[in-house]
Design goal:
The complex is a heterodimer of chains A (325) and B (256). With 325 residues, chain A is mainly α. Chain A is built from 14 helices and 4 strands. Chain A has one domain: ABC transporter involved in vitamin B12 uptake, BtuC, CATH 1.10.3470. A two-stranded antiparallel ribbon of chain A has the order 1-4. Chain A has a two-stranded antiparallel ribbon with strand order 2-3. In chain A, a hairpin with a 2-residue loop joins strand 2 and strand 3. In chain A, helix 9 packs across helix 11. The longest helix of chain A is centred in the C-terminal third of the chain and has 27 residues. Chain A is globular and about 55 Å long. Chain B is an alpha/beta fold and 256 residues long. Chain B has a domain of 176 residues: Rossmann fold (3-Layer(aba) Sandwich), CATH 3.40.50.300. Chain B contains 11 helices and 10 strands. Classes of the chains: A mainly alpha (325), B alpha/beta (256). The interface between A and B is large, with 37 and 45 residues.
Chain lengths: 325, 256
């Protein structure tokens, strides 16, 4: 089993990481049993686990940069919202169409831009993310602008509805876990090895017969799928969507999670999402300055702990200071 | 029939002629060394052959097929694989994974087989076995699980060759494989290259270390200022007055 190999490879690096997993599981169990107000925070965290796990495939595995993955979440989130709340579709086909639409957009945007290197790609994705936000604001007849769309039904098939807070939590954690297993399986497959090879050396990858442009596009599409999935999960879990939900803030938040957790690792994406999602609870009174706080946190981590939480396991080990996945 | 043939290959960079109408034939089998002073155009020649640089004029044929201007990955797929003067490893991957990446061309499967592990299991087992076998040949089996980035320099060079061999090339291009190696490491490298050649892979290498070239090469080709000035057995080339002049500056100097 590929994903077992990946998880084992990460776990055996040290007990500190295992301890974090136990803490995370304990928190989830406690919140589930007591029904604490934190349950909404965990909903949010699980959705971001999906988003960040996908971003990690593009940025951590393939070594590319995207500031625009919020656009894919916006496309599928709004498609889900409009089709269900405005046109009365059931959630599953609405979300499926939204994700498919996001993937088509990813293909159209990714095909030309992924031939660009470094800064150009980052700038192109940033522009794409900003465009998606502006469309959500301006296309009032469909998106209702800043007002947003409310009354989005929860996920479900037929009579089976995932409506209660606890059911939604289980559902989101299940999806997030599947997303992590899939990412772990990808990492230790031919596809994943091509991704990480591109991050290591594009020239060497080419010399070994890897079509770099094609695999960059593949990584982009896979991560866009995760982002789109997260977008649909969000609107059906929260029942409301507005442009701010999928704005540039989403990118800042996801980057912070990715680096807090440890870019390139499966555990890092998940633990980072949980840790950063819990942060606003401690700094709630400063909510006006949240992005400022995230930005500062990101800078501190990049300077002093570039390996993130996942690198905790390597404390006390001299070898391999810059391990990847 | 030649395995690799260059016809009047010229490459200019602005006003500089890095390669000047180079015509070269490499027969299958054996080890051919390309030597020449710094700036003679050796690396440009490798870049043109492997598709990293397009020639300004001329054509490159490999195994009877024109490969002029093809992308590097297309050329690699035809069995022509290179290493780099500055070692290009995937430093964040383990030693074993580096070689596993080299199996890319001989395996198939994308997202679907990644997500259905049972289907690709036999292939993955085979990829790992072959990779470990290559590491054993290169003397790196003990380091299989170490990150490639932490290997000492000499072992990085050996790993890069092992990784290239994982693609099962017909022609292996080595760009200064002995540069920066100790005597012990150079001896180890010689053994590896000899074993590779004995297994039927044609080897073409660029080298500065003349004693290394004399021991390992069956044929030597000399490049100077972008032109081929001599080709032959190592001993013949060593006696060639043009070659001596190219290395020492002038024929007078060679008599001094």
């Amino acid at each position: 089993m590929n994903w077992l190999a990946t998880i084992w490879a990460e776990a055996r690096r040290g007990p500190a990481l295992a301890l974090l997993w136990v803490l995370a599981a304990a928190l989830v169990a406690w919140v589930f049993v007591t029904g604490s107000y934190l349950i909404a925070v965990l909903h949010f965290a699980a959705i971001y686990v999906v988003f960040v796990t996908g971003l990690n495939i593009f940025m951590g595995f393939a070594g590319q940069v995207s500031f625009g993955h919020n656009a894919f979440a916006a496309i599928s989130g709004y498609t889900s919202a409009v089709l269900t709340a405005t046109y009365g579709w059931p959630p599953v086909p609405a979300a499926a169409l939204g994700i498919a639409g996001a993937l088509v957009c990813a293909l159209v945007v990714g095909y030309p831009t992924l031939r660009l290197r470094g800064h150009y790609l980052a700038m192109a994705t940033l522009a794409f993310g900003l465009i998606a936000y502006e469309v959500a604001v301006q296309w009032q007849s469909v998106t209702q602008g800043y007002m947003g769309i409310s009354g989005i039904p929860p996920f479900g098939i037929g009579w089976l509805t995932i409506g209660s807070d606890r059911a939604i939590l289980l559902w989101l954690i299940g999806v997030a876990a599947l997303g992590m297993f899939a990412a772990a399986a990808i990492r230790h497959s031919r596809l994943g090895r091509a991704f990480v090879a591109i991050a290591g050396s594009e020239d060497a990858a080419r010399a070994l017969g890897i079509d770099v442009a094609r695999y960059k596009l593949a990584a982009f599409l896979v991560s866009a799928f995760y982002a789109a999935l997260a977008g649909s999960l969000f609107v059906h879990a929260v029942g409301f969507v507005s442009p701010e939900v999928f704005g540039l803030h989403m990118v800042v938040l996801a980057f912070t999670m990715l680096y807090v957790g440890g870019i390139g690792t499966i555990a890092g994406a998940a633990l980072g999402a949980l840790a950063v999602a819990l942060l606003p609870e401690t700094v709630r009174r400063f909510s006006e300055y949240q992005d400022l706080a995230y930005g500062a946190l990101l800078i501190v981590i990049l300077i002093y702990a570039p390996g993130g939480l996942a690198a905790l396991s390597r404390i006390g080990r001299t070898k391999s200071p810059e391990a990847g996945a | 029939m030649s395995l690799l043939r260059l016809d009047a290959v010229t490459r200019r960079f602005g006003g500089l002629v890095a390669l000047d109408a180079v015509t070269l034939d490499i027969a299958p089998g054996g080890v051919t060394a390309i030597i020449g002073p710094n700036g003679a155009g050796k690396t440009t020649l490798f870049n043109v052959i492997s598709g990293f640089t397009a020639p300004s004029h001329g054509s490159v044929h490999f195994a009877g097929e024109a490969i002029t201007g093809l992308a590097p990955q297309m050329i690699a797929a035809r069995g022509l694989v290179r290493t780099f003067q500055l070692v290009q490893l995937f430093e964040n991957l383990t030693v074993l994974e580096n070689v596993q990446v080299g199996r890319h061309l001989h395996t198939s499967g994308g997202l679907l087989s990644a997500l259905t592990p049972f289907r690709g299991r036999a292939i993955e087992v085979d990829v790992e076995q072959r990779a470990r076998e290559l590491l054993r040949k290169a003397g790196l089996e003990a380091q299989a699980d170490a990150l490639a980035g932490v290997l000492p320099y000499g072992q990085k060079r050996l790993l890069e060759i092992a990784r290239a061999l994982a693609t099962e090339p017909k022609l292996l291009l080595l760009d200064e494989p002995a540069a920066g190696l100790s005597h012990v490491e150079t001896a180890r490298l010689s053994d590896l290259i000899r074993a590779v050649a004995a297994s039927g892979v044609t080897v073409l290498l660029i080298e500065h270390d003349m004693s290394f070239v004399m021991t390992i090469a069956d044929r030597v080709t000399v490049l100077d200022f972008g032109k081929l000035i001599a080709t032959g057995a190592p001993r013949e080339v060593q006696q060639d007055p043009d070659v001596i002049a190219a290395y020492l500056g002038s024929t007078e100097a060679s008599h001094a």
